[in-house]
Amino acid sequence: MSTATPSRKAPFIPTFGNARISAPAEKIIINPRYCLYARKSSEEDERQALSIDSQVKEMLAVAKRENLEIVEIRRESHSAKASGARPVFKQLLEDVRRGGFTGILTWAPDRLSRNAGDLGSVVDLMDQGFLIDIRTHGQRFTNNPNEKFLLMILCSQAKLENDNRGLNVKRGQKTRVEMGYRPCLVPLGYLLDKQSGLGRGKVVIDPIRGVIIRQMFEHAAYQGASGRVLQQWLKEVDFTTRKGKRITLSMIYRMLRQHFYTGKFEYPQGSGNFYKGDYEPLIPQDLFDEVQKLLDMGPKREWGSKMDNFHFTRMFVCGGCGSGITAEEKHKPLKDGSVRKYIYYRCTHSHNLRCKEASIREEELIDQLSEIIDTIDLDELGMRMKLEEEVTRYQKFTSGVFGQQAEPTMLGVDVRLYAKYILREGTKDEKHELLSCLKSKMILKDGAIHLEQKTKKRKSKA
Question: Are residues 136 and 228 in the same domain?
């Protein structure tokens, strides 16, 4: 009986994820898990780069040729000039740190970084062992001192190109400015003739809007027309922007301050450096200077400070045109050298610049409101609860300070007198609270305050 020779067992080779041991004494060989990253800047300075689809196509061919495992493909259209500004790339680095990927496949090193911050993050991941391989179309970078140094040189060169490109753009703009061409959108009144044959657009006067803007300066200089008067006039002549929109009041004042119309312009804006333009002036310099004098003579109001002193604004509407009511302060010098102050409430003319509704003085306004309170039902006035709180607060004060004990009571207290006291001596908020209780709208008509009469609708019987 023959005995069979025992079979020899194959040596056990342990595995760890994608890592395998080829022999018990050999080193671990790790197969990187790649993320294909394709990027193209949306800015004009990187038009020479391949499109995102072209990058993906070329790198997929490289992966197939070299048998690389691509786990995911990520695309991004964003500039790499600023550090940490690309959300897709930022998430990619975070996934590498968490172990989701161990390699990056991209078209060129400058697709990864054009700034020192992102470059430092990539190299730091390689130093810590999270990122073991970077493949481009013709190069490979691993955690090797020489290869990392080469990667840093190539990305730094891309940053240098960006920096030099910015300097070249500024230098080119300065040259164009010295030639009389402002590198900005031309203001209203001018057009850009792109078929001039000069290699760049030629600035020409708008045959329709230019005439109206010249007349606008003449109205302001020779007739003293205000901004609102000019705005109303521009509506009457149907003046609009190039996009068909109406001119706002603030835009009118900006146009009246625009030096471009005189044949010169300031660049950069606010620098005080003026250059002679290579175009025809729309208005003469003396007309522009006359308008500037009138604008400088106008009142310089600090919004939100002086207007807080007027207690009855935004409570009424104009009975003539339906605009809001504003206030203005006037001063009258007296013979003894003192000055008497008067406050007048008038129409804002926001709906009709030619509204002729008369104004009303504040003292007269308070007297008329007091007369209206005498004719209103106390329940409609809505001040009884407020008055009870004030009486209770007063009695607590007298009890705590003077030691006088008294029970809260409403006997002998006139609600109408308290409301009139609020109108004369109360704060702005108290006056607004009081008048807001009135259910009828208050109208300034013929120099007097009126309550809008509401007509009750009769319910039709079915």
Answer: no
| 292 and 326 both lie in a single domain | no
| Residues belonging to the chain | 462
Which two tokens mark 455? 């007509």
Q: Which domain covers residue 255, as residue numbers? A: 190-297
Smallest Cα–Cα separation from 80: which of 47, 111, 45, 122?
111
252 and 386 assigned to the same domain: no
Number of domains in the chain: 3
Bond prior to 268 in cis (omega within 30° of 0): yes
Q: What is the DSSP string of 130-192?
A: S--EEE-SS-EEES-HHHHHHHHHHHHHHHHHHHHHHHHHHHHHHHHHHTT--SSPPPTTEEE
- Model pLDDT for residues 93-105, shown as the tens digit of each residue: 999 999 999 999 9
CB atoms near residue 420 (< 10 Å): 20
Domain boundary among 249, 272, 297: 297
- Sheet with strand 133-135: strands edge to edge: 69-76, 33-39, 103-105, 133-135, 140-142
Q: Quote the Cα angle for 289-352-319, to 5°.
A: 140
Amino acid present at 33: R
Please tell me the distance from the alpha carbon of residue 63 to that of residue 74, in angstroms, as a whole number. 15
326-338 per-position pLDDT tens digit: 888 888 888 887 8
Judgement on whether residues 247 and 352 belong to the same structural domain of the protein? no
Domain boundary among 246, 262, 297: 297
Is residue 457 situated within a structural domain? no
User: In sequence order, what DSSP letters do the residues of 251-302 get, joined into one string?
Assistant: HHHHHHT-GGGGTEEESSTTS--EEE-SS--SS-HHHHHHHHHHHHHS----
The model's pLDDT over 290-330, given as tens digits with 9 standing for 90+, comes to: 999 888 875 554 444 455 568 888 788 898 888 888 888 88
Q: 143 and 124 in one domain? A: yes
The residue type of 217 is F
**Does 27 share its domain with 114?**
yes
Rounded distance between C-alpha atoms, residue 174 and residue 199, angstroms: 17
Q: What is the pTM of this model?
A: 0.43
Give yes or no: residues 22 and 158 share one domain: yes
136 lies in a domain? yes
CA atoms of 41 and 79, how far apart (whole Å): 5
